Amino acid sequence: MKKKTRHCHSMEPGNQENILFPWKNSPHNLGIVPFFTTRRGGTSQGNWAGFNLGDHVEDRPEDVMRNREILLHALGPQARELIMLNQVHGNRVVQADPTAPRPDADGVVTNRCGVVIGVLTADCVPVLLADPVARVVGAAHAGWRGAAAGVVENTILAMESLGAKKNQLHALIGPAIQAANYEVDLAFRDQLLKPSENKMNEAWQKFFSNGEKADKLEFDLPGYVHARLIKTGIDARLIINLEQCTYALESLFFSHRRAVHRGQAPCGRQFSGIFLVPES
User: Fold this and answer.
1) Closest Cα to residue 259, out of 36, 32, 12, 39?
2) CA end-to-end span of the chain, whole Å?
3) Residue 26: Cβ within 10 Å count
4) How far is residue 152's CA from residue 129's CA, in Å, rounded to a whole number?
5) What mean pLDDT comes out for the span 230-246?
6) Whole-angstrom distance, CA of residue 46 vs CA of residue 71
7) pLDDT digit string (tens) for 191-234?
8) Structural domains in the chain?
């Protein structure tokens, strides 16, 4: 008997040229579709050109709405609803509810097929999580504040409440600002590494390196998030870091820091999403 396929290439999608599918044609692709949008294509103009998915950055609402329609069409007919969050750089995580008002949260989980969940970013770290056995997915917006406050850990806990198991989780760390372009001051380091019992948190010290100036440091935010994922107990072999820099890859991604440096803020936002394909 022919084995049923549940790969995303069976979805009869629209144009996917502007979207990254890291699990496409992969053995991990077991009825779960994670993706990362780029800035290419779309209808937005100016600072938001072209595939801006954020409706909180002063872009024309009609352009954002059209871009979201383009995204859902590209994902195919099995992507039925798009869930957005009011992201506040915190650690609150919610279960996706298409009938509820948009929640203030930085993490979202679901076990419902066809419900596309995800987070908006323009330098912060997007983390996508999936348990292909329990068929539970999650997404977290991990800026440095949210990451330090435990948003990734809380997302995993919320997934476990739906039946996911930590030893079955796969994780994807999406496009984000990389250390070479993320300069911070010493006060930032001290705030992130708050003393505990008069000792600095040595485990996280390694993610800071010397900057070009004596009073500046470079911070590896994706590496920090990666380490926190491993600390939760996720198998390191099941964590993929795309290692794509939103600041450096201007033709591909929006970058808030790059826009600020050029006096062009606000700028657009990428969307990092994931959804369950109904079993055939």
Assistant:
1) 39
2) 15
3) 12
4) 9
5) 96
6) 20
7) 888 765 445 567 889 999 998 888 899 999 999 999 999 999 99
8) 20-177+234-276 (3.60.140.10)
